[in-house]
Amino acid sequence: MAKAYERIADDLRDRIRAGELAPGDQLLSETALVDKYGKSLPTLRQALGLLQAEGLIEKHHGRGNFVRQPRTPVQRTNLRHQWEKDRAREPEERRKQTGATEHDTGLDVGDLVFHAAYDQVEAGEELAGIFGVPVGTVMVERTYRTRYQAEQYPFSLVDSYLVRDVVGVNPDLLDAANEPWPGGTQSQLHTVGIELGRIEERVVARPPAAEEAEELGLPPGTSLIVLGKTSYDTAGRVVEHSFVRLPGDRTVMTFTTNLERW
């Protein structure tokens, strides 16, 4: 049998999904909801907490509870990597027309707000192990944040690493002012004669740290999807690695494996 707070949550959830309560609508005050459902304030707050964890409502301190505006979903598939490779050598004007984020969200270039920051750091044990280089090797650290201009929070938190001596032969690859680079990382690597042979992705889920939840605007209880993406050239050398942190409330990851015929 459903508990009292679950029955309250079920009723409010049904009203939200039916459109009786639209995105941006304010719920009745907690006192009014206590009177409406005939339950205690702690029970009501359990119900509201459940809906918050599901991403259906959000609490604005000092104002009340509101139906949450749906965030733009991201459909991320492993087929995106071949799509990126196919366009890496296209003319710049064609590469400027769209990018990976637009590919994953269905948005246009003009819909997005993009931010990139570059730094040079020394590889610690983790990065050195991934790249097969000595600890202390100078890396180019690239931080990317992209969001829909109608929304406050980015689609993901991306930290990408390249070996400085490998890409430094093209000074343009050391300057964040050249971002967003038409065609993305595969096109950048092409300028220094690197062709990717494969990409490996490792996915785990964990609770977000407080700063990650704040930056991504995650509802309480929402998991963080952490993707480690390693790019290898055609000789099997690691040439790029990214740590991609994705919000679990609006990211769908699809993996397609084409099987050989018998």
The amount of helix comes to 25-40%
Give the strand order of the largest sheet, numbering strands 1, 2, ... along the chain.
4-5-6-9-8-7
Average pLDDT figure: 94
CATH superfamily of the largest domain: Chorismate lyase-like
Write the CATH fold name of the largest domain. Chorismate lyase
Please report the total strand number as a whole number: 10
Give helix and strand order, one letter per element, not per position: HHHEEEHHHEHEEHHEHEEE
- Look at the helices and sheets and give the structural class: alpha+beta
Largest sheet: 6 strands, antiparallel
- CATH architecture classification name of the largest domain: 3-Layer(aba) Sandwich
Distance between the termini: 51 Å
Radius of gyration: 22 Å
* Tally of helical segments: 10
Strand content: 25-35%
The CATH class assignment of the largest domain is Alpha Beta
Tertiary shape: elongated
Low-confidence stretches: none
Any idea how many domains? Answer: 2
Give the oligomer, counting copies of the same chain as homo and different chains as hetero: single chain
